[in-house]
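Sample entry (620 residues):
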Amino acid sequence: MKFPFILDVERLQAEVAAFSEDDWIGHLQGFEGNSALPLVHSVDFGADAFVPPFQMSHALRQSPYMRQVINSFETIIGRSRLMRLAPGAKVPPHVDIRYYWRNRTRVHIPIITQEDIIFTCRDQTVHMAAGEAWTFDNWQNHHVNNPTDIHRVHLVFDTCGTASFWRLLEPDTPQITINWDPSADANLILETTPPDGIFSASEIENICRDMIQDVEAFEGNAPQRTQALAEVIDELRYEWRTIELVKGRNAQSAPYYSNLISQFLQRLKLVGSGLKLASNGKLASLVLSRILSEAVTLDQAPAIRPSTVGGSPPAVQVPTSADPNGSNSPKPSTVFDRPIFIIAAPRSGSTWFFETLSPHPEVCTIGGEGHQHIEKIPGLAPQHRQFDSNRLSTEDATPDVSHALKNNYLHSLRDASGNRYKQQNNSLSAFRFLEKTPKNALRIPFLKKIFPDARFIFLYRDGRQNVSSMMDAWKSGRFVTYPRLPGWTNLPWSLALVPNWQNLIGLPLAAVAVEQWARINLMVIQDLAEMPASDVLALSYEDLRSNRRSMLEKSLRFADLPVIADIIDDEGQRLSKYTVTPPNPDKWKRHETSLSPYMSRIDEVDNEIRRRYSLEIEHA
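Predicted structure, serialized as tokens:
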């Protein structure tokens, strides 16, 4: 559907031309040749997140005509960006099935394009010309092809749409010319309300109703199997409402909803296999799993051991004991067997290393990084400590904190297949826990006290490369951790918060990144020196990438894990999900001029690491 706007293409192109190559970031899903420049992004979770509240980026603030154009749609604005497609690149066929899209549409405004660049949605194909504005049904399969030799650039914003917005698409709406007006009020109305954290019973009701109708409408689905799926979905909505009425929607009740989702997904595997949606041909089980993965995002309470309300056990069993864990709940201290912590400065390759080891069949993880597992414990988040830093010591590891952290980890625990870790005979069996969170580089004594038999793998990357990557991360806006750091005047604080960060206020980004990197690594080697050598393995990122097989085998043997061929083979070295730009040993030289005043500090840390651990650190 095409909006009736006529826009000033030259003005839009001039504002795009004002950005540098460093302002662009890689695509969230890693589509080759796709890059983006954030315009409106999540305040708390950075450029790639879909979570309000949203705020304008510096790039949009310096682009007044873009703001004027977006404001002309008279609608509330969500996540927005410039989207660039390289010559010869494609956006592969896909459907936007995450929950965020249930009540939002996406507007495309082409800025740089050619006639041969084609956008296809289901069975309709169009060329979106420069200066036009379009929206489409992204619940349908859609894809883009750029066969030209130019970088296609679109301004793209998401919106729930106001009444005024949708009236613009009514037939016979007259054309509206949006001329550049320096005096125009272009204060965008942005989404500011964060999600509740747990879907309401009414929202689950709507989702379930839509899914059942969609499955029933697909002619290829067997009626008996469709009926079986409908019954399972009905039970989900009945039990969801029961929990809401009894327990409410809060951090304490979150585990009950999570348990219900887990039970539902297990039953979905049995009855929902192969059933498709009439609306877009996608598997109903895939869509339901994806939407429900976002149904409980509130900070999680400790795992709950179910008991029976009364009568025949319902699908969700709500405990009646005042102690939600029950008297026979597993004791976390007995189940964490030699946990393995990957310790590294941010942007040093630890995500790639973690993603390489996490498929090991004897390993359990929390499915990602554990920032909130620690920082949601009262008194541990920097904002509860006068924004001191992410540093935690043995004094912080009190018995109550230890119990809370272990329960937080247990609640998110999943095996190598992504399934929630299973209880055996109402208790948890011992497991090998693998964890990687960059902030943990500042928490080694804290972790060692809570997990005395823990093993630490220290991953170190060449200083020039690491600091350069950290600078890219700061500039991208994707790794903002403390957007409202008191007194901080530089770019919003990104990555780990180091001790004495206050003396970095006002310094150039290169100086901030170098000192952030140096303080983290020096603290790591200081803390690791206090523990038995048998509990520490130091690896060079460069050695790990160039000698993958031998280094991974060494890591597994250190961790007392069986050496699995599928883990250590030389194939499938894909990029990590947090990659900003693909690895290149010379990439750091883009920042060489900025870094030159601080090379002595980088060399100081590189040399100290090399001396202590005999690592081969090759400067590019």
